[in-house]
Design goal:
It is built from three helices and four strands. By secondary structure, it is of the alpha+beta class. Strands 2-1-4-3 form a four-stranded antiparallel β-sheet. α1 crosses α2. The protein is elongated and about 40 Å long.
């Protein structure tokens, strides 16, 4: 039987972990990907109480912790970003290490 190699989990900053935990509670972000005046705008962040920087999104995306889906609102394309199973696993592993 073939097994897939285990991917190592990235070491994230406290800020990045805090944001991932917020996403794990069912929250999501919308990033405008349409070439228009809203290009690059992040929507849905108002309920996040921590410090948010776009580079946190870049890091979570680069590490393969986010799932993207496309949504259109009034003809404008937005990328919906949510935490995927790998991201949830990272948080579970982080909690285990914290408790140890």
């Amino acid at each position: 039987m073939m097994t897939s190699p285990t991917l190592s989990m990235p070491k994230l900053t406290d800020e990045q972990l805090e944001f991932a935990q917020w996403l794990s509670k069912g929250n999501s972000l919308f990033l405008c990907s349409e070439i228009c005046s809203d290009f690059g705008k992040v929507d849905g962040i108002a309920t996040f109480n921590g410090h948010f920087q776009k580079r946190t999104l870049f890091r979570l995306k680069r590490e393969g912790l986010l799932t993207e889906s496309t949504a259109f609102e009034m003809g404008i394309r937005w990328q919906k970003l949510t935490l995927n199973e790998r991201g949830k696993q990272l948080l579970t592993n982080s909690e285990v290490k914290t408790d140890a």
